[in-house]
Design goal:
Layout lengths: L1 H11 L50 H13 L14 H9 L1
Length: 99
Amino acid sequence: MLSHYLLAVMLAQPPALAPQPQPQEGWSAGHSIAQTESVPQSTTGYTSGSPLADINGDGVLDIFDVIAFINCVNTGAACADLNGDGVIDIFDVQLFIAL
């Protein structure tokens, strides 16, 4: 009987609340929504220390880059898309030859 009484008393009391974090100076608490902007038809690229036509990345433009570029074109690999338009075409070949 005593255990039923203790259970009833325990259930009648509100549960202990966890302490709420307090904002510190320079900080705020809460949620925020940031405005974002997208740019249609944009591409992302990267730069490196090697020239664009240095396909194998050895720092030298030579016959091995020509062979690597031909292999990229034949397999449709991204390394053949030199102008970054998402399409491997004559414009990429012209760009490779110009470099």
